[in-house]
Amino acid sequence: MTRTSPSLGLRLASSFAVAALAALPLAGCSGGGSDATSTASDEQAALSTIPKADQPSVIAALEWFDYFKENYPDLYVASTPDQADARPWLDGFDPTSDDVFAHNELDYPGVSPQTLLALMVEGQSNRYYANSSAATDCSSGAQVTLTLGESYCWTTFGSVQHMTIMELVDDPSESVIAWEGGTTGVTSYHRWIFRQTDSGTHAITEECERGLLPDLGFYSDRMNPSLHTGHQLWLEGMQSFLAANASP
User: Fold this and answer.
1) What 3-state DSSP class applies to 93?
2) CA dist., res. 104 & res. 32, Å (int)
3) Which of 32, 28, 53, 54 is nearest to 42 (CA)?
4) Nearby residues of 62 by Cβ (< 8 Å), 6 or more positions away
């Protein structure tokens, strides 16, 4: 688990607070000295813009929180611990006690669990989920595939995450992949369960987070619904990608 000093935790909290004030225009507040009246087209343009990658990670995270909330209000809800799958969690992660938890699921008719696992193992989720980069070697930056025990880096919510593949099960009835790691102040465990059904596969993805940032209400109150939103878009993006690239 990532450990940081109390002073660092205070700096992180202060950074989020300062960045929140700086990002208030994203929520509809006008900047100092500017015209507070915006046109409908301006508002729509702001809501539909994917956050930029080349900016400080705290600002990027705040913009992703706002982007998900404004564009996907029906998805922008927090998951509850009772939704968690019965599969045991590793390393003590627990939806009933961790401050951040997201549960999402989707059916994939005509797709096998192993097909979905193979797509995940490629480590190129950026092809079908905007809030994601490809998996890369943390030192060289070269793209990597995801194998059991593999340590790698990827970027989401504007922060580089250092992850390790903890579970990898390639089975026709139930395939699983899970990674653990994070960034300063956050340790997460994200798992994907692909279960065979009569019509194809039922996919479940769940994530728990713990650490100094999840302990902050400012963070967890935004990350919980944002993760739920993002992961549903991730599942749907995979579905669209597979459909578009299916063999005739």
Assistant:
1) coil
2) 40
3) 28
4) 16, 19, 20, 23, 26
User: pLDDT tens digits for 182-219?
Assistant: 999 999 999 999 999 999 999 999 999 999 999 999 99
Sign, Cα dihedral of 213, 214, 218, 222: positive
What crossing angle do the helices spanning 57-71 and 40-47 adopt, rounded to 10°? 120
The encoded tokens of residue 191 equal: 């798992």
Nearest-angstrom CA–CA distance, 212 and 210 = 7
- Are 164 and 181 spatial neighbours (Cβ–Cβ below 8 Å)? yes
Decide: residue 149, CB within 10 A, 0-12 exposed, 13-18 middle, 19+ buried.
exposed
What structural domains does the chain harbor?
81-85+94-244 (3.30.530.20)
Token pair 């890369």 is found at 136
Tens digits of residue pLDDT in 54-113: 888 899 999 999 999 999 999 999 999 999 999 999 999 999 999 999 999 999 999 999
Distance CA 201, CA 116 (A): 9
Give the sign of the dihedral formed by CA 170, CA 171, CA 175, CA 178. Answer: negative
Give pTM, 2 decimals: 0.83
Long-range contacts of 234-237 (CB under 8 A, 24+ apart): 234/104, 234/125, 234/128, 234/129, 234/131, 234/132, 234/205, 235/104, 235/105, 235/106, 235/203, 235/205, 236/106, 237/128, 237/129
